[in-house]
Design goal:
Helices cover 0% and strands 49% of the residues. By secondary structure, the chain is mainly β. The strands form two sheets. Strands 2, 4, 5, 6, 9, 10 and 11 form a seven-stranded mixed sheet that branches. Strands 1-3-8-7 form a four-stranded antiparallel sheet, with no helix packed on it.
Length: 122
């Protein structure tokens, strides 16, 4: 299964963007799917995930501003980003795994999309 992320772009601070990550096959067996991001010179960091039964988890830096969701019928996971800040600027990657992760390390995930750039101007 391959993951294809889309929806990135340039937005002003305070604006909104929506990301999509479509899988080439069924996501039914993915126990967890979600989003990570990587800014220049920084490590990839956890943003948000959602389990197969719809339970979300957010990093403290995006909680209350971002919403993760998944549509199993469309084999797609989404990330709605509101009240964007310049510090949200990064390449956003979707990720998936067939087992529940023990933590939020990117190493927990076996499947990755190619990344989509999000740039928030001040």
């Amino acid at each position: 299964v391959q993951l294809q992320a889309s929806g990135g772009g340039l937005v002003q601070a305070g604006g909104s963007l929506g990301l999509s990550c479509k899988a080439s096959g069924s996501i039914f067996n993915f126990r967890v799917m979600g989003w990570y991001r990587q800014a220049p010179g920084k490590q990839r960091e956890f943003v948000a995930t959602i389990t197969s039964n719809g339970i979300p988890n957010y990093s403290d830096t995006v909680k209350g501003r971002f919403t993760v969701s998944r549509d199993n019928a469309k084999n797609t996971v989404y990330l709605q980003m509101n009240s964007l800040k310049p510090e949200d600027t990064a390449v956003y990657f979707c990720a998936a795994d067939q087992t529940y992760p023990c933590g939020i390390s990117p190493r927990e995930y076996d499947y990755w999309g190619q990344g989509t750039q999000v740039t928030v101007s001040s």
